[in-house]
Design brief:
single chain, 146 residues, alpha+beta, Flavocytochrome B2, Chain A, domain 1, 6 helices, rod-shaped, binds protoporphyrin IX containing FE, electron transport
Length: 146
């Protein structure tokens, strides 16, 4: 496992609280066939190879997500709390801290906030220009009539 960095004992199948290995996303990405399938859910790496045929949501959906961060798809489906418990048995380690993105989106949150309020930056100059236009028309017509 070239891209794997051990953060502790490296024991597989233990809970997240135990010392666990870190995996680079590149490494996870390589495990994306029906022979071996790993997924990332909320920064944790799961080897779900043996679960593939048993998945009630069909194996195709897991194969589509193979080797990637499947957090969003996993949440979209609304998996039960029992399923979340079940995840623990497939847990093999954590995503390496350098590969972790902020939860809730791949974008830089500061950019997202900027985008949400970017209308704010161009609407005022436009409204201001229109108002100035009206004022200009108003005063020029006033001065012509007097
Ligand atoms: C390691 C990851 C996963 C495990 C252990 C798992 C497990 C399960 C289990 C036990 C169920 C039935 C009970 C429930 O809804 O909670 C289920 C349903 C389902 N799963 Fe997953 N799942 C995983 C990942 C995914 C992913 C990434 C998708 C992607 C879309 C997915 C799609 C579905 C769908 C569509 C159903 C509903 C099936 C139905 O109601 O007919 N699952 N999964």
């Amino acid at each position: 496992m070239a891209a794997m960095e051990a953060s502790g004992s490296g024991g597989k199948g233990q809970g997240p609280e135990a010392s666990v290995p870190y995996f680079r996303l590149e490494e996870v990405g390589k495990r994306s066939s029906s022979k071996e399938i790993w997924l990332v859910i909320h920064g944790r790496v799961y080897d779900i190879t043996r679960f593939l045929n048993e998945h009630p949501g069909e194996e195709e959906v897991l194969l589509e997500q193979a080797g990637t961060d499947a957090s969003e798809s996993f949440e979209d489906v609304g998996h039960s709390s029992d399923t979340r418990e079940m995840l623990k048995q497939y847990y093999i380690g954590d995503v390496h801290p350098s590969d972790l993105k902020p939860e809730g989106g791949s974008k830089d949150p500061s950019k997202e906030n900027w985008c949400k309020s970017c209308w704010f930056y161009w609407i005022f100059p436009i409204v201001g220009a229109v108002l100035l236009g009206f004022l200009y028309c108003y005063y020029t017509s006033e001065s012509k009539s007097s």
